[in-house]
Recover the amino acids of this structure.
């Protein structure tokens, strides 16, 4: 049941990611057309909007990558054939991702509070819009990595159980 909930959350994040990437096209195209053709005036707010959307795309993309096991993992040592060592290899990476997620979530709260007292220059938007991505992403990194650690442990238990049969 937890896996279904987390998988559903990740699906929602993927849809949101697709929408944001689609939305990112609008201000970027406006910038390009304005700078190189002169058909429309140069709107400076489009650059800020593109930056805001891009920050969200990066942070949501990193959360989806953690769920898919495609981020924060550089394989330096080949996977072991021994189940316990393989579990420790996976556990080390997942624990480090979880630790960094907790750190980002914890310290990101103060960072988001700092964004509450700032406004963007052109759009006059509150910068908490982008600053809040740090604690949200950190929390989701931690949750996803803890669940993946649980899955790795279950996989280890099933392989050792099969070896004894």
């Amino acid at each position: 049941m937890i896996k279904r909930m987390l998988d559903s959350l990740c699906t929602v994040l993927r849809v949101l990611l697709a929408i944001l990437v689609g939305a990112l096209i609008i201000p970027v195209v406006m910038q390009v057309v304005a700078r190189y053709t002169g058909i429309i005036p140069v709107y400076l707010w489009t650059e800020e909007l593109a930056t805001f959307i891009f920050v969200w795309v990066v942070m949501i993309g990193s959360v989806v990558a953690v769920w898919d096991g495609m981020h924060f993992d550089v394989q330096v040592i080949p996977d072991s054939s021994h189940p316990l060592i393989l579990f420790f290899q996976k556990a080390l990476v997942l624990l480090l991702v979880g630790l960094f997620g907790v750190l980002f979530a914890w310290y990101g709260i103060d960072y988001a509070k700092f964004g509450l007292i700032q406004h963007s220059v052109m759009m006059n938007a509150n910068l908490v819009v982008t600053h809040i991505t740090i604690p949200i992403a950190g929390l989701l990194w931690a949750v996803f990595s803890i669940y993946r650690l649980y899955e790795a442990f279950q996989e280890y238990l099933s392989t050792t159980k099969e070896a004894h049969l």
The chain has a mean pLDDT of 91. The two ends are 29 Å apart (CA to CA).
